[in-house]
Amino acid sequence: MQEISEDDDVDYNIQEKKDCPAAKSVILDPSTVSRFEPSEHNVFHCSGKTNVPEMCLIGMKHGETINFQGYLLVALISGDAIIMGHRLQGVSTLQDGKELAEEITFINYNDDLIFHPIYSPKTHSLISIESVERRENLPIFSNRGIKASLNIKQTINDLLIKSKIVKENFDTILVFREMTWCGIQGIEKIASSCFKNIFTAENVNSCRNNQSDETDSIKRNLFQISGFYPILEVIAGLTSLQLSDSWLNAANQLAIDVINYNVPPIVVICGHRNVGKSTFARYLLNNLLNVYDVNCPKVAYIESDVGQSEFTPPGSVSLNILDSPIFGPPFTHIQRPYRSYYVGNNTPRDDPDYYLDCLRELVIVYRRDIACGPDFGMHADDEIQRIPLILNTHGWIKGMGYDLLLSILGFAKPTHLFQFHSLIHSYQNLPPFPVSILSPPNEDPPKVFSVEAIDNSKISTKYTAVDYRTLAMLSYFYSTPAILLKQENAKWWQFDKPLIHHSPWCLDWTKGLMKGVFVFFNDVPWSQLLYALNGSIVGLVGNISDIDESHEMIDETEPSSGLSQEKEIYIQPPRYFPCPDYPPPTPSEYSFLGHAIIRSIDPATHTFHILTPLSYVELQKTSFIVKGSLELPIWFMMDHTNNISTGVCGVPWKRVPYMNFEVREGVGNSAQR
Fold first, then answer.
1. Mean pLDDT of the chain
2. Given its phi and psi angles, is residue 395 left (phi above 0), alpha (psi -120 to 50 degrees) or beta?
């Protein structure tokens, strides 16, 4: 965490924790504290019922906020609340001053009550739930979260009557539910030295007096929701996002234009890295989902940052179609894209032309299939649905990175251009755009908005880009099919079972690969191909046009030089397309299916043993495997259920090959790659 001197003109406090054993100066963010005082009058816990999950009612006044660390399910009973730019509206309108009667039903059992999963780890800015004035005539969307069962609705109605919360005249009434069943908290145990307690608040009051500790503990216990830790005091290491006026004005203007435009707007967000582009993109996405009428509750999203992807693990660019708000950082909403292409690296530097080809094809697919296509863009009565596009660009704005950005703007042809600008750090500002971008010939110029960059010195954190990529990879490979269906009471992440204990799929490369193997960025000799693939992260790619056809046997005529032939078994290696002799797969013909780990290889039976969250049906679509430059995180090789501090599988660390667990000393020895 970066330390700020007392002479710096910032709103953050520097506090010396004199009462702590290891006293030192730390940055404390006062904006993380909730503007909500929990008490027995505004928090009502459900107790005494069996087969009912942990649940409580929350009554809030306009302007009150609840900031928290952890994860939970949230639904609105009455009033409005805003979470990360998205307005949630209650399903029931409670009349002020109405006498409470036992027969009153506040939630119609025939109406859908939707619970939204919200994730607020300390790796990112905390999520804030704010009570706001009610807005009339908002569309009511369904199928955007987890639908409450009849039993849950009955329990909530009973609690509404029993608590008499209506008589308190709250502006907003919410329901909080625990969701420990999803399994996300298990990610803390896999890489305990990096991600310990990112969801779980622990010893937050260790440096305060006992009386304050006891008071805050009583307030927190009112909720009784596992995994939910409201922030009632300033805590070191936690940060909160403060939205600037430029963010709000830009989002509001876009919402107005979306309604008035005859064509779906194309929004491009650009700026230096670590200025808030991805956070702003999530804010715009959530806000746009409140704009459309019930006929078109969707937004398209293209992620072009291969190192910090929003909906997929690193190494790919993707087009996603969203119909529900996202409340949490990227690793909490990994999903299957509408179309994706495998770049195979955390940067486009090694093959910029292929990177641009992939993005250009995604824009073409959006215009052809999404914006006005038959599946998304047209009704039976020929009414056009206007599905906008948000394109978030990379943060590489110098040299080749700037040239790539200009190329993206050239073929994306945005109607709205959001450019981040910093008044504090001039190096974060983009060079002036050429006239061909701001005033393209024979085309309407884009509306350009200047968006204030986030000051990193105020939200400094110990987590790096490498950590975020690791979190995304862990979330992806440990996910289950239940997360795609938003299935309740089923594990969405299976972190309790180490990846090395998962049973791999067996892929016969003579039958299961129509094409073969591509290797990007490295000149791997034929004799070393299987060695290079073993224990690596690869991309599974399928043919778009022939994706449902059966795979044929591949005749391989190349010699199997360097491969053993035990018991006179002929080892038939996979067909190989080395770099740079063969160009990458053409984006218009192939699509990226998902990541996989080649756990081991059996040359005698020409079989890859692969680990992937993809289903059997999806695996059958695989045409070839692509090996890029993505590194396998060390945590994927470990069994986190056992004590790894002494060694691996009973072998002391000094005798474990290839890895070292010892702490080195000296400047630079602890730096991450």
1. 81
2. alpha
